[in-house]
Amino acid sequence: DPSTLLPPGLENFVQLGVGVSYSHPLMQNLGGTLDRLPFELSGFNIARVELEAAENKEALLLDIGLRYLDWVFLNEQQKLMKARLKLAQRSLRQVLKRHKANLVDKVDVLRADDSVQIAKQSLVWTKARSKAKQSELAVLTQEPKLYNQAPSYPLYEVHDLPDADSAITSLKESSRLVQTLNTVRSQLERQHAGIEETLEPQLFVTVGAGVTHDIAGYVDDTSENDLRPDVYALLNFQYPLGNTTAEADADGTRLKIMQVQEEVKEVELSLEATARSLLIQLKDLQEVLRLNELQIKSAQRKTQEESKLYKRGRSMLTFVLQSQDGEQSAKLARAET
Q: CB neighbours (10 Å) of residue 146?
């Protein structure tokens, strides 16, 4: 008898049922803020990784750009060294002629030859450095064609400087360090909001519906089966009496937010100080370049006058060569600036 399998008094109360229920928060986690918290926090991590990747890419491009400028300078220096070598060799030939004519001593020939050797050494050393920089760029850019090319850049071109305030504002807005710190701050603020949310009371409304089915026929074949609907609604309220762990986490997160805010201020102040200092240096550098141009023009005029005197027989070729060498020295000083 199947009824013997049931506890006493329940032979006529066997039921099967099926139903669904839904709970909706009215206070804590309203709108699913806590459910979305892990996903939103991971989004900030992704943003930080993207900023770091962009910063690394920019750092690589900056390194390549600086190496290229070094190559441009060395190539320009090489041209100037070649010109100075030609002047030294021409001066040596002139001294040799005068020595044969017993117009100068042997020591003057040795001095002229020493100048030639120094110019040759400087040219060889500059060539070696230029080729080394060229090789570095070819490897870093993975561009073998650079081995057969010469750099091209307006080395002496001067641009107008930007306004200090606008430059500083642009620098702060584009600084990836500031952007990264702001992302960290936003992440901490979202995390703090989630912790504060856990301190809120919990109030849920739950509604459900279902059906039950009496299987009295299983016990007693003479009874009729019964199918009944079941609908209900509940309110569930819970109030935390003191979540010290969550409160401590909230205080700690709030402190971290304040620290990041101070870091942002320090970085922005550092950027502003660096920007103003660079603008002042660039302004002074423009003045130095202007003076270099005047020096080169003055050396060129001196060379012209020495050449005129030499053609008239009122000066020696040595003075012409010295003027030309001074002109090349002025150009080298401009390139180094």
A: 19
CA angle 79, 299, 87 (to 5 degrees): 45
What's the CA gap between 114 and 88, in Å, rounded? 9
Measured from the Cβ of residue 231, the count of other Cβ atoms closer than 10 Å reads: 9
71 SS3 class: helix
Distance, in Å, from the CA atom of 51 to the CA atom of 56, rounded to the nearest integer, reads: 9
pTM for this predicted structure = 0.72
Question: 94 burial class (0-12, 13-18, 19+ CB within 10 angstroms)?
Answer: middle
Give the other-Cβ count within 10 Å of 282's Cβ. 13
Phi-psi region of 41 (alpha: psi -120 to 50; beta: other; left: phi over 0): alpha
Answer whether residue 8 shows pLDDT above 90: no
Question: What distance in Å separates the CA atoms of residue 55 and residue 10, rounded to the nearest whole number?
Answer: 74
Both tokens of residue 315? 């000066």
Cα separations (Å) of 317 from 102, 149, 271, 320, 328?
Answer: 16, 37, 55, 5, 17
Q: Note the pLDDT tens digit of each residue in 270-297.
A: 999 999 999 999 999 888 888 888 888 8
The Cα–Cα gap between 278 and 161 comes to 11
State the Cα angle at 12 between 8 and 16, rounded to 5°: 115
